[in-house]
Specification:
The protein is of the alpha+beta class. It contains 1 helix and 6 strands, in the order E-E-E-E-E-E-H.
Length: about 100
Amino acid sequence: MAAKKKKLLTYNGKPLIKCGDRIYYGNLEDKYILVLDITEEQVMEAEKIPTKVKIQLMDNTQELGKGQVFRKAERENLYKALDIGSWWLQDALNMG
């Protein structure tokens, strides 16, 4: 029997991988990756909604999530964090 392959959640064609309160965005084989840390959440109708997200554009040549940070910021929700972070990531990948 063949093993079922899990389908990854994506944003703008790049995978999102969630590990606890940390989200990795981008292809794990690329030179750069975006790391999003959810630092605050609000519970609304039994759902946790991120209200503060720390964004870091990192070098991905070290252990995952341990590379050099090139850019960082903080946004008030996940959409705004992914919006700016995806632009940073694409720009970094295009430059080299």
